[in-house]
Structures are given as C-alpha cells and as structure tokens.
Amino acid sequence: METHSINPITSSGVVTVEQLLTAGYTALAVGDYARAERLFRRAVQVNARSAEAWRALADTQTGARHGMCLRWVEYVEGTRRQAQPTPQPVPPALPTVVPRQGRYQARLVGVVGATTLALLLLGSDIAYRERVLPGVHIGPISVGNLQPAAVERAIRQHQQRTAEQLVEVRAGGRSWHIPMRALLRDRSAELARAAIAYGHDPAFWTRATTRARAFLGQEYIVSAPPLDEDAIEAFVAVIADQITRERRDAQVLRTEQGWIVVPEQVGQSIDQIQLAAQVADLLKASAWQAQATPQPLIAAMVYQPPTRTAAQLEPLRQRLQDLAAQPLEIQLGEQRWTMDRSMLMDRTTVIDPAALKPDPALITQQLEPIASQIAVAPQASYLERQAERVRTIVPGNVGRELDREAAIQTIIAALEAHAPQVRLPVREIQPPPGEAEQLGLLAELGRGESQFVTYSSPERDANVAAGGNDIDGVLIAPGEVFSFTQTVGAITWEKGYRWGEMIEAGVMVPSLGGGICQVSTTVFRAAFWSGLEIVERHHHTWRLPWYEVDAPPGMDATIALGGPDLKIRNNTQHHILLKVETDLVTKRQTVVIYGTPDGRKVEMQLLDNGNIGVHRHVINGSQTVGEDTFVSYYSR
Q1: C-alpha distances in angstroms, 323 versus 145, 328, 548?
Q2: Residues 143, 220: contact at Cβ < 8 Å?
Q3: Chain-centroid distance, C-alpha 168
Q4: Radius of gyration of the chain (CA)
C-alpha cells in the first residue's frame, strides 16, 4: 500500500491550526485515521478557541465524545457572537477530501482557551459540590442553586398544593372522581438526587459541557410527573367494571304462564387502554400545575347492538304457544306419557317460525325420565338351595331398555307429521350367564312319570312324597354315578316316612318307607328317556299293576337299603339336576332331569321274544351313542 508522509511543521518551526487541519484531512484521505485524530487533537491544543478544530476532532469520534466535541463548538461560537456582534468576513473554506468512511470538512472558529475551561470547571466543582446547577427544573419547580434538603422540600410543598386536585372521568352518563395523589408516586428523594446529579458526571468533557450550558442560562428539566401505572390501571378497571354491560339478544322463554319474550339489551364497554393513556396524559399536563381542577375526561363508549329483538321474536313466541297447546302422547304398552311439542324444537337461533325444527338434544332430554321408568335390568339365573339340595332354578330375566336412537327418530317423524301420538321402541337385554348356565342346567333332558292312583294309602303316599323329597334337587357332576340308596340315606320316621308294605322273600311284609320304589321307578324312567347311562337297575319280584298304568311292563325299578340299588352315570359334559314333583291329589309323581342338550334322542322297543322288558336305542343324528336292554323276570 502506498504511504504518504505528512509534516505539518513549517520552515519557521511554528505549527498553525490551519496546517494541522490540512495535514489531518490529508491523512483521512489516505485512510490513516489514527494519525488524523492525533493531528486534530493537537490543533485543539494549539488553539482551543478554534471551532473548526473541534469540528474536525468530532469527525473522528463516536458516541458521547462526538457529542461533547459538538457541544464545545456551540459553546465557542456562542462566546464569539457575544464578543464580536459585528459580522466578520467568512474565511475561505479549507479544502475537502473524501475518505473511505465519509466526508470531512475543516472549519475554524475561535474558542476560549483550555486554561480558562480548566479554571471554570475547578471553580464550579467547589461551588456546586452540594448544590444543584443553575437552570435546573423539576417540572415547573426551579431548584437551581438549592441544596438536597431544600430540593425535596420544594417538591413536597408543590405536590401538597396539587395532589388534592381531582381527576374526573365521565362515561355513559356517570362520573368517577379520584385525587391526583392516588395516581402519583412519591419520588421526591429520587427526583432531588437526579437534579443534583446533573452536571456532576465523572467524565471531564461531559461535566464541562453540562456546566457550560448551565452557566450560559440554558434550562434543564429533570423529570415529568412520576405516574403510578398500576394505580391508573386499577382506577380504569373499576370504571370499566361498573360501566360494562353485556350484550343480550332477545329470547323466548317457557314459563308457567306460557311462552314469553325477554327483551334485548344493548352491550356497552370502554377501551381501557385508551382511557388509561388519557388519564396518564392528563396527569403529565396537570399534575405539576397549581391550578383549578382539570377538565373532565370523556371516555369513549363502545356499543354492541343485539342481533335479535323482541319485535322479531314475537311471531316465534306465538308459534311456540300454539305447539304447547298440542301435547304429543308417548305410548308403551299400557303406559302413557305426554310431551310438550314446543319444548322439543330448536329455537336458539331461529327467528322465523317456519324454520322451527325438532332438536334431537331436547328430545333426548325429555326422553330420559321415561327411559328410566321403563328400564328393566337383566337378571342372571341362580339356584335356590336348601343345604346341599337345589330346590328351585330361578331362570334369568331378560332386561329391557329404551332404544334411544330409534325413539328420537320416531318422535322427530311424529313432530314433522303432526301426529298425535307415538309408540316407543324398546329392545331386550339378554342376562349374563348365571349359576344355571355355568353348571349347564339349560334345559330339560328328559322326564319320567308314574301314577300310584291304583295303589294308594295315606302311609304309602307319605312314603312316596318323603322319598321324592330326598331325591329332589340332587346335582350330579359330569362322569359322576348317582346312587339312589346312598342319596336317600336312612329311612326314618323323622324324615316323614311311615309304615307301608314291601315284598320280601316273595311275601308282602310291613316296612318303614314301604312304597319308596314308586320313586326309584320314576327316577329310572327319567334317566331312561334322558339317554343317561343306567349302571344298575333291578326289577320287582312281582309284576305290579300300578307301575303299568302309564308305562309298558318292565319299566319299574326296585331298591332296598343294603340290597338292590338304582345307579345312573352322568355321561354328559355338564352337570345334571334331578327335580321331583309329587302330586298327592292326582297321585302322580314326576322326575325331570335338567342339563345341557347335546342332540341325543331315545327310541324304545318292547321285547317280542317272550320276555318282558324294553330295548333302548340312544342316537345322535344318524349315529348310535348308546344301546341297552332291560329284561324283567317276575315270579308272579
């Protein structure tokens, strides 16, 4: 890079401001900013009264230093105007060069010397160490030359004269008042410190410039009134809360006297942000002024007109009144309910009566009380037990509930067709599996019956009833073998047995419980027709006619405690249950076996080979699942 050597020293060895400025601008032209700044500083030292030297130095400074140099220019030029009131010829401008970062122009004006400035600054440091500089104001209060305590006192005295002035806000025909002191903060000490701090900056050039301005009579205002923004916002919020009124559209309502129209209401509010700004501006303009109460503030109202008026809704009210006079009848079997048609219409956004339509939500609301009345909860089956016996199978109950979706559509159709009544649709709810289903006691597998009308006595009837009671309610698990004698157990008088007759060694003899074979015969027949496996069965010694009243010969079964027994195996996949019913009036006993049907069927054939008995064929579809023959050999 090409360099230039600039020597501002003249042949006589004396350096002038003009030479230093020329050399400095030449250095700027070639980009040597550091040298230019040194030359401009030296020009100021050579002649502190040169405004051109201060301007040139300002061109090489930034920020506060740039501003300080310009203030010295103002100060020097002001002094020159006072010293030389007659116009002076303007010296020719120095040549101007254009560096890379801007254009610089040399200017020359005289200024007081650096020695005079230093003496002025030193003297003011002593005189105003604890006092405010001349020309300083806090708002309208002049506090120049005062000490700190006097400054605070002056502020408080002024605030006492103005703080009780009232701020008045008017809106919507109402007014609100609050004293200014409630909206201002007490910052007397802070303002006093700010006033005293003016002109006491630790930086030499800043302090010198500030004091020069003050001594030349320029005023300085420390602060505007200290506003309490939170208090202003709270005051405005109170006004807004009291003046705000929600917009309300006219609406139709159902009352005990019928349908009425509630009138509309215009909404109103204020712009809180705008009003807070108005209050702040009023305080800034009036808080420092010892004058009468300021003019009231007029808050702009914001109005919101309703979208529906009472006049618009009157035809709708009349239509709803007409609908209310035509109730809709709801039917379910013999039960009856009525619904108010007008309460089933969507009227929230409707003005034109012709636009009224059924509202599914309102229909659902009206249906709920009815739904609760007709609802029947499903009941699972259960077994009523006595000790280890099942006395009753209580079947599950099917539940019932309203089919809501179908009911809503049915009512909508009735409303649109102006039908006078409607029938409610319901649906069944199947019960959950109960104890009967869990054990497999789902249906009747088979039954056996026997009559004892041809041989009946009070004692024998009592024994048939007692034996049936001992068998009734027996549960037999899958694969388990049922023993009649073990199930009956001891035959005692306490259990209801009485003296009857039985065949023993070919002779009819008295026996406690005589006639119980009527029960075993009935159980045998039930097992036979259920297709269960007959493990053990014995015929009577004699052929007895009362066992052939309602069955062919050979369909009897005898038992004796400690002797012949009737045994049946549960060859199904589920439990089976024996239920016995003894009718002592008709002299008939019935045994029903309950379980889970698996499709088996029973066919019976009488023996035709001269023997007395029956042949059983158990089939399932086309498959044979069991086959057996029961032959009876009677001695007489």
Answers
A1: 90, 10, 76
A2: no
A3: 45
A4: 61
Phi and psi torsions of 371, nearest 5° = -60, -40
pLDDT at 212: 77
What single-letter DSSP state applies at residue 608? Answer: -
H or E element in which residue 524 lies: helix 517-530
Helix (H, G, I), strand (E, B) or coil at 601: strand
3-state secondary structure (DSSP) of residue 550: coil
3-state SS of 234-278 is HHHHHHHHHHCECCECCEEEEECCEEEEECCECEEEECHHHHHHH
CA distance 479 to 196: 114
CA atoms within 13 A on the CB side of 553: 16
Indicate if the pLDDT at residue 424 is higher than 90: yes
Q: Is the per-residue pLDDT at 203 higher than 90?
A: no
DSSP 76-122: HHHHHHHH--S--PPPPPPP-B--TT--B---------HHHHHHHHH
**Total residue length of the chain:** 636
- Phi-psi category of residue 148: left, alpha or beta, with phi > 0 → left and psi -120 to 50 → alpha: alpha
Distant-in-sequence, close-in-space partners of 61: CB < 8 Å, separation ≥ 6: 37, 68, 69
Query: Residue 531: helix, strand or coil by DSSP?
Result: coil
pLDDT for the residue numbered 105: 31
Q: Which long-range contacts (CB under 8 A, 24 or more apart) does 487-491 make?
A: 488/516, 488/561, 491/516, 491/561
In whole angstroms, what is the distance from residue 440 CA to residue 596 CA?
Answer: 5
What lies within 8 Å, CB to CB, of 474 at 6+ separation is 389, 390, 482, 487, 577, 578
Question: Do the Cβ atoms of 306 and 264 come closer than 8 Å?
Answer: yes
Higher pLDDT, 14 or 180: 180
Cβ within 8 Å of residue 412, ≥6 positions away: 358, 360, 363
Q: How high is the pLDDT of residue 81?
A: 66
Does residue 108 carry a pLDDT above 70?
no
Structure tokens belonging to residue 519: 């029960």
Residue 88 has pLDDT above 50, yes or no: no
**What string of H, E and C letters represents the secondary structure of 610-623?**
CCEEEEEEEEECCE
What distance in Å separates the CA atoms of residue 320 and residue 351, rounded to the nearest whole number? 12
Coil, helix or strand at residue 279? helix
pLDDT given at position 7: 46
- Residue 430 CA: distances (Å) to CA of 70, 405, 441: 100, 19, 17
Q: How many CB atoms lie within 10 A of CB 611?
A: 12
pTM summary value: 0.53
Specify the pLDDT at position 415.
94
The 3-state DSSP class for residue 418 equals coil
Dig out the tokens for 222 from the structure: 């420390």
Q: Of the ranges 85-89, 401-405, 504-508, which is most confident?
A: 401-405
Hunting for tokens 């027709």 — which residue is that?
529
* Listed residue (465, 567, 459) closest to 511, CA to CA: 459
Q: What is the torsional sign of CA 40, 42, 46, 47?
A: positive
Query: Is 500 in a helix, a strand, or coil?
Result: strand
pLDDT at 367: 95
Confidence band, pLDDT 50/70/90 cuts, at residue 82: low
Q: Are 46 and 16 in contact (CB under 8 A)?
A: yes
3-state secondary structure of 521: helix
Environment class of residue 145 by beta-carbon count within 10 Å: exposed (0-12), middle (13-18) or buried (19+)? Answer: middle
Question: Residue 18: helix, strand or coil by DSSP?
Answer: helix
Instruction: Give the model's pLDDT for residue 494.
Output: 95
